[in-house]
Write a structure and sequence with these properties.
By secondary structure, this protein is mostly helical. It has a domain of about 50 residues. The protein is built from 3 helices and no strands. Helix 1 runs antiparallel to helix 3.
């Protein structure tokens, strides 16, 4: 659920950036306003909202709602477990015998080797 919301969040963020960059600024028609005699529209009356401005507003509302939902879901997580909780401690392995039982001993050669006491 959270991964789907995160992907939707990223898509909305990129779409919001694109919609904002596609729109004209308020002062974009300033040069035409001075030459055409429409001095009331220099930085004032905006007129009706365009499709891009309405779509940007709706997308911004959805983006913020999704942000709040993601924050709520991340705060309701169950307590996190440590990686060390899954580690199983094994008992130490018994040491191997110094000389295996099935290997014949060589006379004179094994006399110098100390023999480990039996456990």
């Amino acid at each position: 659920m959270q991964s789907i919301l995160m992907v939707a969040h990223l898509l909305m963020a990129f779409a919001l950036i694109g919609f904002i960059l596609l729109q004209q600024g308020r002062g974009a028609d300033t040069g035409a306003a001075f030459g055409s005699g429409a001095s009331t529209t220099v930085f004032g009356a905006r007129g009706s909202a365009t499709f891009l401005s309405r779509a940007t507003a709706v997308l911004a509302i959805l983006f913020f709602a999704n942000s709040l939902l993601l924050a709520h879901l991340s705060s309701r997580r169950v307590e996190s477990r440590s990686l060390m909780e899954d580690v199983v401690v094994e008992s130490p392995v018994a040491p191997a015998p110094a000389v295996p039982a099935d290997v014949p001993s060589i006379p004179g050669r094994d006399a110098d080797v100390p023999v480990a006491p039996a456990p």
